[in-house]
Design goal:
Keywords: Glycosidase, Hydrolase, Signal
Number of helices: 3
Order of helices and strands: EEEEHEEEEEHEEEEEHEEEE
InterPro entries: NAGPA
Strand order of the largest sheet: 2-3-14-13-15-11-12
GO molecular function: hydrolase activity, acting on glycosyl bonds
Pfam family, one: NAGPA
Number of strands: 18
Protein name: Phosphodiester glycosidase family protein
Amino acid sequence: MKRPSLFGLAACAAIALSACGQEPAGEPVVRTEIGSGVAESDTKPAPAVDPSPSPTPTVASACRSATFEGATFTHCLADPAKHRIVTALGPAGGAPYRSFAKLAAARNADAPAVAFAMNGGMYDGEGKPIGYYVENGDRLEELNRAEGPGNFHMKPNGVFYGTGGTWRIRTADDFYANVSQRPQFGTQSGPMLVIGGKLHPKIAEDGPSKAIRNGVGIDSAGRAHFVISQGPISFGVLARYFRDELKTPNALFLDGNVSALWDPARGRMDSGARFGPMLVIEEKETR
C-alpha cells in the first residue's frame, strides 16, 4: 500500500496528536491537535465491548479503576515477577489480526493465560507497524527516525521494549544510540508523554481536544503501568497521571480513539475500531 508522508493522511497536521493508524476508505479516523484543540471527526465516544468473553475466575484481574483530575481511567499493572510481555500482530505470513477477538481465537489452548492486552503502537492502512517492531525476537520493522506529520512524528517519540523481566521505555534517539542487542519484544509509538520525569514540551496543560487514549509507563521498580481512559481526555491529563500519580519517569503514548483493552478476568474485550500491533501481558506459570 502506498503511504504518502507515511500515513497518506493530509488531516494529520505537523503538530497533530491523535490516532494515526489509517483506516480503510469509508471508516473515518479522528485527528486532534495539541494547542488548537481541533477535532475533525468523532467515530464513536468509546470502544464497544464484546459481550462474548466470559470472566476467567482462576486469574485475578491486574486492572483497576482510578480517578485523577476528574478523569476516570483503567490502570493495569504488569509485574515482572508475575507477568511476561509479548507483542502480537498476526499469524506468521498472514495479515494482521486487527482485533483482540481474532487474536484470542488464534491462541493455542496451552498458551499462557492472558492477564490483559492493549493495542500497542501506530500502524498503516493494513494494520502493519510504521515504526520499530519486534515479535518473539524477530524484527519486523526497523526503527523510524524520519520527520513527518502526526503524533508519531511529534519528537521525541519512543520505543517500549524488553527481554525477560526487564522492560524499558526510551526515546527513539536514545534507543538508537544505546541499544545494540535486539530485545524479545518492542514497539515504537509517539509521542513520549513523560521524558526523564518531565512532560513532553509540546503537550498543552489541558487542551480542549479530547479523546479516549492509552499509554504505558515504567516505574522505578521496573513495573509497566498500562493506562486507558474511560472517557475522552486531553494529552495533558494523561501525561500528568503517569508523572504525578504513577510516578513513571518515562511514559509513552500508544494511541487514541482506537484505544482498547482486553481484560479476560473481568470479561472485557473492547471492539469496534481496528488496530495494529498489540501488547499481550501473560501470566507466568506458578509451581
